[in-house]
Design brief:
By secondary structure, this protein is mostly helical. It is built from 14 helices and no strands.
Length: about 220
């Protein structure tokens, strides 16, 4: 696999960007998590981000997030009422590894904090930040289990709705962008996605993240 950055013309970059974003779905939607401005679905995207930020096979993280949702914990309020031992069991059965009791604690703390601070609704966090991107990131990273990497993963998806947050690209999307010669920053990718089209940008960065996670460079570049 080549290690040098591809050299592409502007038109070649735009064609590749259109092809990558062509299915009209971001990372979360590709794996069955709808991204709408709905409290439950925003919470699901957030805990998917928490799981994806852990080291290991990303398929396990997706499976675990799906299992948590299927267990009925599809909102912050329902997750907050769940039992710690039950969360541990669902995570274990979904194939997650590592310190599962600590992870179950984090998920419970995250849900309870959202309920107590924002009535379980991340839209209230957005309002509290006055739709300021720096404020949104500051309030997100104040939540249990949410660091800058988790915030990037959440905002990568949420920017389709929270347009003020754009442009956002996580580290894997940026790694793929560099390898494929599409640029080195979220702003570079935003230009290829159509400037102010934050939804299209979320599709593009989600596709790039999948390329890196699935190691599909040869397939995409060919």
């Amino acid at each position: 696999m080549p290690t040098t950055t591809a050299t592409r013309s502007v038109e070649e970059k735009k064609r590749l960007a259109r092809r990558l974003a062509g299915d009209g779905r971001g990372f979360a939607e590709r794996y069955g998590f709808r991204v709408t401005n709905n409290p439950s679905q925003l919470f699901q995207v957030l805990y998917l981000a928490v799981l994806l930020a852990r080291r290991g096979d990303f398929h396990r993280a997706v499976d675990a997030a799906s299992a948590l949702r299927d267990a009925g914990w599809d909102s912050a309020a329902r997750m907050a009422r769940s039992r710690h031992a039950d969360r541990v069991g669902v995570l274990r059965d979904a194939g997650m590894r590592g310190d599962l009791p600590a992870l179950a604690d984090t998920l419970g703390d995250l849900a309870r904090t959202l309920v107590e601070t924002y009535r379980g609704d991340l839209r209230r966090l957005r309002t509290a930040a006055h739709q300021d991107p720096a404020g949104e990131r500051r309030l997100l990273t104040a939540l249990p289990g949410v660091d800058d990497e988790v915030a990037d993963l959440f905002l990568r998806e949420a920017q389709a709705l929270w347009r003020e947050a754009a442009p956002v690209a996580d580290r894997r999307a940026l790694a793929a962008a560099r390898r494929l010669g599409l640029g080195r920053s979220a702003a570079d990718l935003a230009g290829l996605a159509g400037g102010g089209e934050s939804e299209r940008l979320s599709w593009l960065v989600g596709a790039l993240a999948r390329v890196d996670l699935e190691r599909r460079y040869a397939e995409v570049a060919g």
